[in-house]
Design goal:
The structure is a single chain. The chain has one domain (about 1-245): TIM Barrel, CATH 3.20.20. Helix content is about 40%, strand content about 15%. It contains ten helices and eight strands. It has helices spanning about 15-30, 45-55, 80-85, 100, 105-120, 130-135, 140-150, 180-195, 215-220, 235-245, and strands spanning about 1-5, 35-40, 60-65, 90-95, 125-130, 160-165, 205-210, 225-230. Strand 2 (about 35-40), helix 2 and strand 3 form a beta-alpha-beta unit. Bound molecules: 2-phosphoglycolic acid (PGA).
C-alpha cells in the first residue's frame, strides 16, 4: 500500500473542498493503479469538521496537522487535543513537522504528542529530517535516529505509525536528495527502526520535500519508500493528480 499525503499547512477555506472533490473523482476513475494507494489530505484545523463529514464515505482520508500534547480537556487557551479531533472522524495526524519544531516544539513535546495521539487511536505521521548544517557535517543519520528514539517508545504499535522523512533543506525549496542518497537514507531509517523496536515487519516510510510531478519520477524506483508527504503541490488538484499519474507510469 502506498500513501500520497497532502499537507496544506496554512491554506484553504471552506470552498477548497472542490480541490478534494476533483482528486476523489480521479481516484474513482483510476484503473491503472489497481487502487494500491491511499490518499490522505491534511487541511487546517478550521476545515477538519466540514471535510471529515463531506468525505466520510469517499476515498480520501482526512488528517490533522498537529494537536495538543497533554490532556483531552484542560485550561489551554487556543489549543485542541487529539481526543477532540478524533471525535470529528479524523483518523490521521501529522506530528513533529519541521515548521512546528521551528516554532518551539521540543522533542519532549513531540514525544507526548505521539503518545496522546496513539492513545486516541490515531495513525501518526511522524516527521523527521536533518537541516542543511547537519547534512553538511554528515550528521544526517545521527539526527534522524535521535529524532526517532526521542519520540517513539518500544511499546508503541508501529502499524499505527508512519515515518515521514523530510530533509528540512528540501521543504519548499525545489531541492531534493539524489536517488542514491535518498535510497541510502530510507534503507538506514527502516533498518534502524526494525532493529531498535524489534519489528517483524517493515515500518512505513514516506519521503517529503519538494515532491512534484517531476521529482516523483526520480524516486519512483525506490522500493523502500511507501509514499510521499506533499506540501505545495497538494494545494492544486491538477498538481496532486499529476504526481500520482507520474508515479504509476
Ligand atoms: P513541500 O512541503 O512539498 O512544499 O516541500 C512538504 C512538507 O512540508 O510536508
Amino acid at each position: 500500500m502506498r500513501y500520497f499525503i497532502g499537507n496544506w499547512k496554512m491554506f484553504g477555506i471552506p470552498s477548497s473542498f472542490k480541490i478534494l472533490d476533483k482528486i476523489n473523482q480521479y481516484y474513482l476513475k483510476d484503473k491503472k493503479s489497481n487502487k494500491k494507494y491511499k490518499i490522505v489530505m491534511a487541511p487546517p484545523l478550521t476545515l477538519l469538521q466540514d471535510f471529515s463529514k463531506r468525505f466520510k464515505n469517499k476515498k480520501i482520508l482526512i488528517s490533522a496537522q498537529n494537536s495538543y500534547h497533554q490532556d483531552n480537556y484542560g485550561a489551554h487557551t487556543g489549543f485542541v487535543s487529539p481526543f477532540m479531533i478524533r471525535k470529528l472522524g479524523v483518523s490521521y495526524i501529522i506530528i513533529g513537522h519541521s515548521e512546528s519544531r521551528a516554532s518551539g516544539e521540543t522533542e519532549e513535546i513531540i514525544k507526548n504528542k505521539v503518545s496522546l495521539a496513539l492513545k486516541n487511536n490515531f495513525n501518526v505521521i511522524l516527521c523527521i529530517g536533518e537541516n542543511q548544517k547537519q547534512k553538511r557535517k554528515k550528521m544526517t543519520l545521527k539526527t534522524l535516529k535521535k529524532q526517532i528514539s526521542n519520540s517513539i517508545m518500544k511499546k508503541y504499535n508501529f502499524r499505527k505509525i508512519i515515518i515521514a522523512y523530510e530533509p528540512i533543506w528540501s521543504i519548499g525549496t525545489g531541492k531534493v536528495p539524489s536517488h542514491q542518497e535518498l535510497k541510502k537514507n530510507a534503507l538506514a531509517i527502516k533498518k534502524f527502526i526494525k532493529q531498535k523496536y524489534r519489528l517483524k515487519f517493515n515500518p512505513k516510510l514516506l519521503y517529503g520535500g519538494s515532491v512534484d510531478k517531476t521529482t516523483v519520477g526520480i524516486f519512483r524506483s525506490i522500493n523502500e519508500l511507501d509514499g510521499f508527504l506533499i506540501g505545495g503541490a497538494s494545494k492544486s488538484s491538477k498538481n496532486f493528480i499529476d504526481i500520482i499519474k507520474n508515479f504509476y507510469t
